[in-house]
Amino acid sequence: MQKDGKKVRSIEVAELAQISRSTVSRALAGDARISEATRDRVLAAARQLGYRPNLIARGLKNQSTGIVGVVVTDLENAYHAHALQLLVEKLGAGRLAPLVFACNTVEGAENAIARLMSYQVDAVVALAAPFSDEIVKSCVAGEKPLVLMNRHDGDENVGVVAGDGLAAGAMVADHLVARGARRFAFLGGEDNSFISKERERGFTDRLVSHGFDLAVSLSSRYSYAEARVVAADILRAAPDAVFCANDTLAFALLDAARAADAPEGERPMVVGYDNSALAGWPSYDLTSVDQNLEAMTSRTVEAAFAMIAAPDAVAERQTIAPFLVERGSTSSRNSSRTR
Amino acid sequence: MQKDGKKVRSIEVAELAQISRSTVSRALAGDARISEATRDRVLAAARQLGYRPNLIARGLKNQSTGIVGVVVTDLENAYHAHALQLLVEKLGAGRLAPLVFACNTVEGAENAIARLMSYQVDAVVALAAPFSDEIVKSCVAGEKPLVLMNRHDGDENVGVVAGDGLAAGAMVADHLVARGARRFAFLGGEDNSFISKERERGFTDRLVSHGFDLAVSLSSRYSYAEARVVAADILRAAPDAVFCANDTLAFALLDAARAADAPEGERPMVVGYDNSALAGWPSYDLTSVDQNLEAMTSRTVEAAFAMIAAPDAVAERQTIAPFLVERGSTSSRNSSRTR
DNA sequence: ATGAAAGCGCTAACAT
DNA sequence: ATGTTAGCGCTTTCAT
Question: What homologous superfamily is domain B2-53 in, according to CATH?
Answer without folding.
Answer: lambda repressor-like DNA-binding domains (1.10.260.40)
